[in-house]
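It would be a great kindness if you could assist me with a short task in structural biology. The matter concerns a single protein, recorded as an amino acid sequence and a row of backbone structure tokens. Could you please explain, in whatever detail you think fit, how the structure tokens follow from the sequence? Thank you for your consideration; the sequence and its tokens are set out here:
___
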Amino acid sequence: MANTNRTGAAGERIARDYLRAKGYAIVESNWSTTFGELDIIAKRDGILVFVEVKTRRGSSTESALESVTAVKHARTLKSVYQYLHDHDIDTESEWRMDVIGVALAANGRPRIDHVEDAFDW
């Protein structure tokens, strides 16, 4: 596995643990479509949450969060609609798209930034 794949997988594990600790139930991970992959699909308080996880080595999540571009937004939205369709979930149901930035610091303590409704622009 390439170093970037290991970094991404580590970030996704950290994000899942973080979400569980915040009361989210993990529904699925790494759900693939022809448009891309949904990193984490979770649920809390009846709301389905599609989470894009961006991981970087270092002490800041800034570059990770900034890497979610308009193109990534569009692909993620297509993947979300594909997931809703494939699981027979009404698009009018409550759902949102979040981004979690994970910074893997040298001291071994990750920094996590969670932006809810991150694609609400």
Summary: The longest strand covers residues 47-57. Strands lie at 25-32, 37-44, 47-57, 95-104, 111-115.
